[in-house]
Amino acid sequence: MSGQTDGRPVVGVDLGGTKILTAIVGDGKTILGRSKKPTPAKDGAEAILVAIVASIDEALAASGLNRDDVAGIGIGSPGPLDVDTGVVLFSANLNVRDFPLAPEISKRIGKPTLLQNDVRVGGYGEFRLGAGQGYKNILAAFVGTGIGGCLIFDGKIVEGATGNAGELGHIVLKVGGPQCNCGNRGCMEAFSSRTAIARRVLKEVRKGHSTLLASKVDKKSGRIKSGDLAAAVAANDPIALKEVHRAAHYLGLGLGGLVNVFGPEIVIIGGGVTEALGAPFVDLVRTTIRKTVLVDPNEQIKVEPASLGDDAGVLGAALFAHERFQA
Ligand SMILES: [Zn+2]
C-alpha cells in the first residue's frame, strides 16, 4: 500500500489530550477539509481510536473524498512513543499505556499509518510551511501547559540516540528551583510554562494581592487559561505583567543558551501561551535571547513567532505521511 507516486492527498491527525484535529492535505501543503473533535481521553484507548476514525471520515467528507482517495495517514501524538512500531508507550494526558495507535488506525482505515511525536510534527510543519520556511537550522519551542521543542539541523529533525532529542523544557535553569512535572527542579518548564505562571499567580492570590486573575485561576487545579492571562496583561494587571515578564525572561535565558550551543538561523516560538500573548511576549523573549547570545553580528539570528497556529500539527503530520507514503 505504500510507495505510491500518484500524488494522492494524505491525512494529518494531531491527537491532543483535549482535542483531535484532522486535515486532508493535498500537494503536501493544501488543506482540503478538516475536522475537530474532543478527545475522549477518560474513556481510554478504544474510545480514542473510534473518535480518530470518525474524525478522519468527517474530514474526508468535508473535502469530498473517501478513504480510497488518500495515500496514507500521519499522526502526531504525545508520548513517549515507539515511532518504529507506531505505539504510544504511555501518556498521562491520553490515559493510555502500550497503545498500538498507528497499527490500529491503519487496520481500521485500510491505509498505511505512521506515528510521530506531537511537538515534532508541529516543528516540522513550521519548518516546511510556516515561520521556518527558507531556513535549514531551526530551534522551535512551544509554550503551553508544558514546554516542548524541536531542533532541525541542516534540514533534518534531530532525533538523538534515544529518539527523544528536543526536550528543551527540561534544561535546568536554577539549582533547587521550582518543582517540575518531570520530577526534577528548576527546569525551564517550571519557570515559563502556563502551569508555572498559574502556580505563581495562585500564590499571589493566596497572599491577598489584587489581580484580575483572582477569579480566573482554578483554586483546586491551579490552572489558568492562556486567553485569561492575555486579557489580564492587556489590561495592565500588575501581577499578570510581572509573571509573564518573568516567564519570558527565563525562556529567553534557556533559548539563548541553546542558540549558543546550536547556532540556529531562527528561533521559532509557538504554543498556546505564545499565541494568546502575541508579539509582545516574543519581543520580551527575543530581548533576553539577544542578551544571552555571545556572538550575533548585526542581530542576524531571527526570533519569530510560529505562524501556523493550530494547523502546524496537522500539516506537519501530513508532511511526514506525504514524504513516507508518496516518496
Ligand atoms: Zn523538567
Descriptive account of the structure:
This protein is of the alpha/beta class. The chain has helices spanning 45-62, 101-109, 118-129, 189-192, 194-206, 226-234, 238-262, 272-277, 279-292, 311-326, and strands at residues 10-15, 19-26, 30-38, 73-77, 81-82, 87-91, 96-99, 113-117, 138-143, 147-153, 156-157, 266-270, 302-305. It has 2 domains: 10-122 and 311-326, Nucleotidyltransferase, domain 5; 133-305, Nucleotidyltransferase, domain 5, CATH 3.30.420.40. The protein has a 5-stranded mixed β-sheet with strand order 3-2-1-4-8. The longest helix has 25 residues, at 238-262. The chain is globular. Zinc ion binds next to loops.
What's the name of the CATH homologous superfamily of the largest domain?
ATPase, nucleotide binding domain
CATH topology of the largest domain: Nucleotidyltransferase, domain 5
| Main sheet characteristics | 5 strands, mixed
Mean pLDDT: 94
Bound molecules: zinc ion
Number of domain units: 2
The CA-CA distance between the termini, in Å, is 12 Å
Run of helices and strands: EEEHEEEEHEHEEEHHHHEHHEH
Q: How much strand content do the residues show? A: 15-25%
Question: Could you give the count of β-strands?
Answer: 13
Low-confidence stretches: 1-5
Give Rg in angstroms.
20 Å
CATH class of the largest domain: Alpha Beta
What would the principal axes of the Cα set say about the shape? globular
Instruction: Identify the strand order in the major beta sheet.
Output: 3-2-1-4-8
**What level of helicity do the residues show?**
25-40%
User: Helical segment tally?
Assistant: 10
